[in-house]
Design a protein that fits this description.
elongated; single chain; 3 helices; mainly alpha; 2 strands
Length: about 110
């Protein structure tokens, strides 16, 4: 995918909605953990790891790489991918901060 799709996103004929959708798919594919409970303000429930951990790290790496390119053609793609990347980091930090209010200064689980 890195060699087949990503280089073609620079083409001006590719609609913005396609690039945004591609970034959103990468964002969702890069999530490593989920909770089996829904709560506002954190939870003490253990995080459940998702399957295919290497693929999820690959998706996160591709999302970061796509957002950090600075060539002329890549600037358009980077600008459209950036909101998904920020959303991905924001979600992780928000979960950590919400959980830290309940757990205290415990380190990240692994």
């Amino acid at each position: 995918m890195r060699n087949a799709i990503v280089p073609r996103l620079n083409d001006s004929r590719v609609p913005e909605r396609i690039i945004k959708h591609f970034a959103e798919v990468l964002r969702k594919a890069s999530i490593l953990y989920h909770y089996d409970v829904k709560s506002n303000g954190g939870t003490l429930a253990p995080a459940i790891s998702e399957s295919l951990e290497r693929m999820r790290y690959w998706a996160l790496n591709l999302l970061i790489t796509s957002a950090s390119r600075s060539d002329d053609g890549d600037a358009r793609v980077a600008g459209l991918v950036l909101p998904s990347l920020i959303s991905r980091f924001e979600g992780s930090l928000r979960h950590f901060l919400d959980d830290s209010e309940l757990r205290g200064q415990m380190p990240f689980p692994r």
